[in-house]
Amino acid sequence: MTAAPAPIAVALDAPDLETAARWAGLVAPHVSTVKVGLELYLRYGPDAVARVREAGGAQVFLDLKLHDIPATVAGAARSVARLEPAFLTVHAAGGPAMIRAAVDAAPGARIAAVTVLTSLREEDLARIGLEGPAHDAVRRLAALAVEAGAQALVCSPQEAAAVRAEVGPGVTLITPGVRPAGAAAQDQARVATPEEALAAGADLLVIGRPITGAADPGTAAADIAAALRRTPAGGPAASAGS
Ligand SMILES: O=C(O)c1cc(=O)[nH]c(=O)n1[C@@H]1O[C@H](COP(=O)(O)O)[C@@H](O)[C@H]1O
């Protein structure tokens, strides 16, 4: 019997579409979602979404991190809505009117509001003018985003439990900054293991380089998926994606 795909979104941050499509094909039997981000989308546009979708069959998360005035974000969200991504990211710091504009313009996608980037350290927050600590900033932005209609939130696994307590069970919690035990953090600052992220209540774990940088991305994805199946989920909204 084949196991159900794990609640993982593999970040296909590849320099070319052939590589991304190959990764998508290798990981798709093991994960629910693949993520197309700026690197791929800015080079290939809608073809990137079509090609990775074709390659594997996992749902597509479009991570464009929109952040502009509401009218511009509405136009951008409308432009990509026809690609039918399961998730589309915006920066929560764009404010409630901007988030609402994205929600209204792309009704078929779940708008995922990015709270505080997982690459930021506590000491970075003050420098960019964000009142910390990170936990408080993330909770504040999460509450604002959900009030504005966001159906999903992006935060570090370290804040997932606090965010869940803040917004309740109906919102999809997405956590990048995931590193298997012993893996290098690279440019991520607020990290946790896949098992810790799931136990903290995350619904969907974004994992890129620990999978795509492995000699065999399919096996790396399968190993993490198997570890997650042995971990009790922490949150009530433990189903990933749509
Ligand atoms: O929105 C995201 O997906 C995102 C938000 C965030 O705060 N931190 C973050 O790392 N990401 C994305 O998650 C992925 C993480 O990749 P790895 O660090 O290689 O696992 C990248 O594609 C990032 O763009």
Automatic annotation (TrEMBL):
One of its GO terms (biological process) is 'de novo' pyrimidine nucleobase biosynthetic process. Pathway: Pyrimidine metabolism; UMP biosynthesis via de novo pathway; UMP from orotate: step 2/2. Substrate binds at residues 13, 35, 63-72, 118, 179, 188, 208-209. The active site is at D63, K65, D68. The keyword Lyase applies. It is an enzyme of class 4 (lyase). InterPro entries: Aldolase_TIM, OMPdecase, OMPdecase_AS, OMPdecase_bac, OMPdeCOase_dom, RibuloseP-bd_barrel. Its EC number is 4.1.1.23. Keywords: Decarboxylase, Lyase, Pyrimidine biosynthesis. Belongs to the OMP decarboxylase family. Type 1 subfamily. HAMAP family: OMPdecase_type1_B (MF_01200_B). Homodimer. This is Orotidine 5'-phosphate decarboxylase. The lineage of its organism: Bacteria, Bacillati, Actinomycetota, Actinomycetes, Streptosporangiales.
